[in-house]
């Protein structure tokens, strides 16, 4: 029996912490806040403006331990401002003549606004060029591009214009800020982009060129774009391409495409590391992080990672280098690796996908609804045996309280290295390493699982009436507990084996895994992709095997479910 503490690696947490510190900062401030720039801070200056203005100064503000790098005058909006660049932030306050006794004016004058440098993703010299003008144009100043939070999960880009027509002045600010931006870790400079032009209603290309590419260009990211031409194209591309040329991969498509890219990348890592992929191998981590721009009919991976399918949010996570380690599942059969993935369904979920794939000519949403209804109409249980290594929560209190409270507790878990066996007739079995948030399931298909906790969720729906099973499915679309049915069982596990029930009467439960006879193929839904395999399958979870660009989202921005077929 092993004991361990649930890991808490979350790059975005630090980001959130800094943002809340910025919010705290702001709450100390007086005077107006710029409403269109929600992440910009405002705080009181505790020092008077220097009398000699107009020249850049190199100073050190020892009180705040945030050394001042540059100081100068720019016009921001219609106001002349004293602008200070320190190692952590860019701040400015309006310059107004002091009138003795005018307290309000003096307070206003000392009010400072700022943006943290970690929220800046690009800087450009701003010039005006008239039609036909040959040279580079008249300098107007500097434009700073920043990443702002919009609502709970969304990010958006915005600009701050620092106007000053002096070339020398602007160039020295431009170079200094550019150097700082180049020093931020994890921000990609070169990306391989893989677009599935056939995803959903064939809008992936347009989403990329209109919403994502302009942001990558602004951030000076080199891109190498491939439009996939057939299923499996991304996989063969990743077998050969020179990965060292890139800082990351980006997939524009739905869950199927993303899963193929992740599988290809992880497979490549195993080949490069010379790993023998039998069912007990310990996989090595993927060499590159993967970004997901959602453009598919199902976007569970993007929702779980960003809390929204908003392409600009995904693009900004990539540009800012927000890395989120994510657990990955391996699926093996007869001692052979079949694929890597994040989630899977067997039984109803597998059969519905197999049916949908046979009707590819239908529009995607219609196809999905048709397949769900038809599979529900022909609902039939599968006679299977399930073996799993369960994890038990050590701390009694950690199952109570809100998700946030639970997260803050120190959670200790034991996992039993003793297989548990259950068999019977199952309608559906789901095994998920990520919360599986989506527009039809705002709490997620696996609400108790995090992206990087090292566990997987096993949800078993035993045989019941069609009406009861439909009620259980319908419950996913609400915020009520979808597992609160007598025929549903949930477990947190490390490993699962699914096997057709042994009717031979053998007492050795593991003998059948050795020499398995040729058998019927069963449909599995792995991240929305159909995997047809023999009845014996072994699923393991590998903690933090890949970095994805994004954050650890707890629930959706828009918790409105929109499934109409049930
Ligand atoms: N050019 C292509 N033609 C056909 N299939 C492709 C092409 N490129 C990729 N694929 C495959 O299409 C499958 C589905 O793609 P994706 O998940 O991006 O779209 P989707 O609209 O969400 O899919 P679905 O309609 O199956 O939910 C993936 O398995 C991918 O491998």
Which helices and strands appear, and what pairs or packs with what?
Blueprint: E1 2-5, H1 11-28, E2 41-44, E3 68-76, E4 79-86, E5 89-94, H2 103-109, E6 111-116, E7 120-128, E8 138-150, E9 154-163, H3 167-182, E10 190-195, H4 204-218, E11 222-227, H5 233-240, E12 248-253, H6 255-272, E13 290-294, H7 300-306, H8 311-320, E14 323-333, E15 336-341, E16 343-347, H9 348-358, H10 364-377, E17 382-393, H11 403-408, E18 412-415, E19 420-432, E20 456-462, H12 466-475, E21 488-500, E22 522-526, E23 529-533, E24 537-549
Parallel strand pairs: 10-11, 10-12, 12-13
Antiparallel strand pairs: 1-18, 2-6, 3-4, 4-5, 5-6, 7-8, 8-9, 14-15, 14-24, 16-19, 16-22, 17-18, 17-19, 17-21, 19-20, 20-21, 21-24, 22-23
Helix pairs in contact: 4-8, 5-6, 9-10
The structure holds adenosine-5'-triphosphate (ATP).
């Amino acid at each position: 029996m092993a004991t361990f503490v649930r890991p808490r690696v979350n790059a975005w947490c630090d980001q959130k912490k800094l943002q809340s510190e910025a919010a705290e900062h702001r709450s100390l401030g007086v005077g107006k806040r710029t409403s269109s720039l929600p992440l910009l801070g405002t705080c009181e200056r505790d020092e008077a403006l220097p009398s000699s203005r107009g020249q850049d100064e190199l100073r050190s503000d020892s009180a705040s331990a945030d050394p001042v790098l540059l100081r100068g005058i720019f016009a921001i909006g219609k106001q002349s401002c004293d602008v200070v660049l320190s190692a952590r932030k860019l701040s400015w306050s309006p310059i107004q003549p002091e009138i003795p006794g005018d307290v309000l004016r003096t307070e206003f004058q000392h009010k400072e606004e700022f943006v943290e440098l970690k929220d800046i993703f690009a800087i450009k010299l701003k010039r005006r060029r008239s039609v036909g003008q040959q040279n580079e144009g008249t300098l107007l100043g500097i434009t700073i591009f920043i990443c702002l939070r919009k609502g709970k999960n969304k990010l958006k880009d915005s600009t701050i214009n620092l106007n000053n027509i002096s070339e020398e002045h602007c160039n020295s600010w431009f170079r200094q800020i550019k150097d700082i931006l180049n020093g931020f870790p994890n921000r990609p400079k070169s990306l391989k982009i893989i677009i599935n032009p056939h995803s959903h209603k064939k809008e992936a290309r347009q989403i990329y060129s209109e919403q994502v590419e302009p942001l990558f260009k602004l951030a000076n990211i080199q891109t190498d774009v491939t439009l996939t031409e057939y299923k499996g194209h991304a996989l063969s591309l990743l077998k050969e391409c020179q990965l060292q040329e890139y800082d990351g991969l980006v997939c524009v498509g739905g869950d199927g495409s993303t899963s193929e890219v992740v599988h290809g990348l992880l497979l490549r890592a195993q080949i490069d590391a010379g790993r023998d992929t039998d069912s007990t191998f310990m996989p090595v981590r993927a060499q590159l992080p993967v970004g997901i721009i959602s453009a598919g009919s199902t976007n569970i991976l993007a929702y779980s990672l960003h809390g929204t399918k908003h392409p600009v949010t995904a693009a900004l996570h990539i540009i800012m280098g927000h890395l989120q380690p994510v657990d990955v599942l391996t699926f093996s059969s007869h001692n052979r690796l079949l694929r890597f993935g994040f989630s899977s369904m067997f039984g109803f979920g597998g059969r519905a996908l197999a049916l949908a794939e046979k009707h590819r000519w239908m529009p995607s949403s219609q196809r999905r609804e048709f397949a769900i209804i038809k599979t529900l109409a022909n609902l039939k249980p599968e006679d299977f045996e399930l073996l799993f290594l369960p994890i038990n929560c050590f701390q009694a209190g950690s199952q109570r309280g809100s998700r946030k409270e639970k997260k803050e507790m120190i959670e200790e878990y034991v996992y039993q290295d003793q297989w548990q066996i259950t068999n019977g007739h199952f309608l559906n079995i789901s095994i998920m390493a990520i919360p599986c948030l989506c527009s039809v399931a705002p709490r997620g298909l696996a609400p108790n699982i995090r992206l990087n906790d090292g566990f997987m969720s096993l949800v078993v729906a035993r045989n019941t009436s069609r009406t009861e099973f439909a009620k259980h499915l319908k419950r996913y679309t609400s915020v009520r507990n979808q597992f609160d049915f007598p025929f549903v069982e949930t477990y947190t596990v490390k490993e699962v084996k699914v096997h057709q029930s042994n009717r031979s009467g053998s007492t050795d439960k593991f003998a059948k895994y050795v020499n398995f006879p040729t058998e019927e193929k069963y449909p599995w839904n792995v991240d929305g992709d159909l995997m047809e395999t023999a009845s014996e399958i072994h699923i393991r979870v590998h903690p933090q095997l890949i970095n994805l660009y994004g954050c650890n989202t707890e629930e959706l921005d828009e918790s409105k479910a929109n499934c109409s077929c049930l």
